Amino acid sequence: MAILATPSPRQKQNACRLPARGRAFRRRLLAWYARHARKLPWRGVCDPYAVLVSEMMLQQTQVRRVVDFFPRFLARYPTLEDLAAAPADAVREAWDGLGYYARARNLHAAAREVVATHGGVLPERPEALRRLPGIGRYTAGAVASIAFGIDVPAVDTNAARVLRRALGVRRRPPARLWRLAEALVPRGRAADWNQALMDLGATVCTARVPRCASCPVRTSCVTGVRRSR
Ligand code: SF4
Predict the structure, then answer these.
(1) Do 73 and 14 share a structural domain?
(2) Hey, which of 3, 15, 20, 166 would disulfide with 221, CB 3.0 to 4.6 Å?
(3) Domain ranges, residue 32
C-alpha cells in the first residue's frame, strides 16, 4: 500500500521547480514501465525482507545472476528470523557463487539487528534503514519505496545515468542529482518510478550506447532530442 506522506517544504519547493520537460519525461517513462517492466522474481513481492534480500544481492551484481540465487536463498531462509538465527558459516555457504561476501555478512548482521532492536520488523523509513549494516542511501530508498510505498528516490548507477542524460545535467554532483531525483518522484508511485528508471537504464539507456531511436522518452529527453537533430 502506498503511503502518501505529507511533502516536506523542500519537496514542495522542488516540485514547483520541476521543469515541464521533467514532468513529460516522468509521464512517458511510467507509461512505458506499465507495459514493459522486466519480469523478475522479486517484482511484485511485498515482503520487506525479500525486497531487502533482492536489493543486497543486486549490489554490484548483474540481474541475470541474481535471478537464480534469489529464490534459492529465500527457500533456505524464508524469513528474517530464519536468517537471523542461522550460523554465519551457513549463510556464507548459501551465498556461495554470488561473490562480494561482505554483503552476506551485512545482510546477516542486519537481520540480527532487526530481531534484536526492532522486534523482527524491518523499519520503514530510509533514515532508520540506513542505520543497519550494509544499507546505503540507494538500498534504503529502494527498500522504503518498493516494500513500504514511501515516496523517496533510489538512485543507482543506471538511474543516475538516465537522469543525467534525460535532464541534461551530466556534471551535476551526486548530492544535487539526488535532490532532483527527490523532486521527480511521483506521489504514491515511488516503487514504479524507481524501478522504471532502473529498467530503462538497464535495457534502453545503457552505459555504452543509449538506444535513443527506440527510447520511449526520447521526445522529453535532452540527449534524445539532441541526437535526433
Ligand atoms: S532518449 Fe537516449 S539518452 Fe534519453 S533516456 Fe532515452 S536512451 Fe537515454
Answers:
(1) no
(2) 166
(3) 9-37+154-227
* pLDDT by 10s per residue, the chain, length 229: 334 445 555 545 444 456 677 889 999 999 999 999 999 999 988 899 999 999 999 998 999 999 999 999 999 999 999 999 999 999 999 999 999 999 999 999 999 999 999 999 999 999 999 999 999 999 999 999 999 999 999 999 999 999 999 999 888 889 999 999 999 999 999 999 999 999 999 999 999 999 999 999 999 999 999 998 8
| Diameter over CA atoms, the chain | 59
* CATH number of domain containing 206: 1.10.1670.10
- Ligand 1 contact, 166 CB (< 6 A): yes
CB of 226 within 6 A of ligand 1: the answer is: no
Distance CA 32, CA 37 (A): 8
**Are 194 and 132 within one domain?**
no
Rounded distance from Cα 205 to ligand 1 centre (Å)? 5
